[in-house]
Sequence to fold (344 residues):
Amino acid sequence: MQNQIQDILKQAIEKINKCNTEAELLETEKSFLGKKGSLNEILKGVKDLPKEDRAEIGKLANQVKQDINTHIQNQKQNIQDKALDAILEQWHDVTLPGIKPQKGAVHPLSLIQEKVEEIFQKMGFMILDGPEVESDYFNFDALNFKKDHPARDMHDTYFVGEPQNKDGDKLLLRTHTSPVQVRGMLQHKVPIKAIIPGRCFRYEDQDATHEHTLFQIEGLYIDKNISIANLKGIFQEFLTKLFEKKIEIQMRPGYFPFTEPSVEFDFSCPFCKDGCRVCKYTKFIELAGAGMVHPNVLKSAKVDPNEYQGFAFGFGLDRLAMLYHNIQNIKHFRENDIRFLKQF
Ligand code: DAH
Fold:
């Protein structure tokens, strides 16, 4: 019987060590030490032993019970420790250095557009929008480009084959933001004071300053008392605010079918006093086309030119952004190279 009891201890230890949960452990305890457990089953035979052996067996049985219990307690502790470790593994060690998330940045074109919009808004201009797929009528006819006018050739145009619009007019990708002059006046009536930022498209030979996609800002101010002096003053104020230094404006005669008279605008180089690479040592930088809105354009917008007049201007936002941020190649704007975008 002593051997049997020792065997039980051996079996119990083996089984206890294999237990992975507290429930399994409880089950094992019951199977060895419970009322119907294997130890009790053996001890049932004690009564048949000679008297002098009984005390011996009783002592051994108690010892084995205690040993089994100790093993059970140890294993229980092991199981609990393991469970705690598993929980702790999921926790974050707050003392570890963090992982830096990739930081987004505003695109330099959006950045300059926001600045331009803010300055003009503070001067009372509203911001208008227009379609990028435009009709031949609004892109050209309404702006006083006669059908066979050579100025149409200067706007190397992407035509959209089909569909034509409901008036049977050809559709195209707008070559400039000027069509929104007429759309704006038709929709909002005069007096009107608006800027129109937007994407335009031209079938251009591409180089460091020309792309098939370009951004423009158009300006329009129509009222009863507007002259070219207002145009000069507003433009000077805009550039002075943008470059945060006093800017001078220079106007040269120009030609656009939709303005009369037309001018080309230069502004004093904000980067030098006596000439530099940016202004090509001329101290002035070319920026915009402008002029007094042609009476035929006002008529397209159902505005009486005898009652209202005003100015319009347009310039390339890409060009301004390149000047402002000292960017050498227009290509960078659309390449989406994160190393370029991160600089702003
Ligand atoms: N639309 C012209 C262009 O794309 C720019 C321009 C010139 C706009 C004179 C104007 C303007 O409003 O008055 O070349």
The CA atoms of residues 282 and 288 lie 17 Å apart. The pocket of 3,4-dihydroxyphenylalanine is lined by residues 176, 178, 218, 256, 259, 289-291, 312-314 (CB under 6 Å). The chain has two domains: 2-89, 108-341.
